[in-house]
């Protein structure tokens, strides 16, 4: 399990613009790397819209934002266009990044256990070190959690 103070696992993936996005792109910047279950679902949409609505504030505080789910590039493109999302959404269909960041695992819903994407966020500092891990994401107030605004 990753912990605060660990070096962030290197990653590389393709976003909704069919551009490669990798951890090294953010050297010297703070990165909010957020993992979410599925495009166009209520919680994931609320979370993305909250980050979108606070994107300029996050940028002004030195943060870049990247979302990751197992959805396809095509689904990410439609989701980003529908909600005017200004940040990259990586399509991790083979779950390589999800597994590296402990965002794939056993979940429970209505008494049933299954494997799926675990909603969580990592804040990675300018040197590639994990500065913060948010395991209990508030989808309607996610930017506030990242910035620790009460």
Principal-axes geometry comes out as: globular
Topology pattern, helix = H, strand = E: EEEHHEHEHEEEEH
Number of domains: 1
Number of strands: 9
**Total number of helices:** 5
CATH H-level superfamily: Glutaredoxin
Which CATH class?
Alpha Beta
Q: What's the CATH architecture name?
A: 3-Layer(aba) Sandwich
Termini Cα gap = 28 Å
Round the mean pLDDT to the nearest integer and report it.
95
The third-level CATH topology is Glutaredoxin
> How large a portion of the residues is in β-strands, by DSSP E?
25-35%
**How many whole angstroms does the radius of gyration measure?**
14 Å
Comma- or semicolon-separated keywords:
single chain; 150 residues; alpha/beta; Glutaredoxin; five-stranded mixed beta sheet; two-stranded antiparallel sheet; 9 strands; 30% strand
Structural overview:
With 150 residues, the protein is of the alpha/beta class. It has a single domain, classed as Glutaredoxin (3-Layer(aba) Sandwich), CATH 3.40.30.10. The chain has five helices and nine strands. It has a five-stranded mixed beta sheet with strand order 5-4-3-8-9.
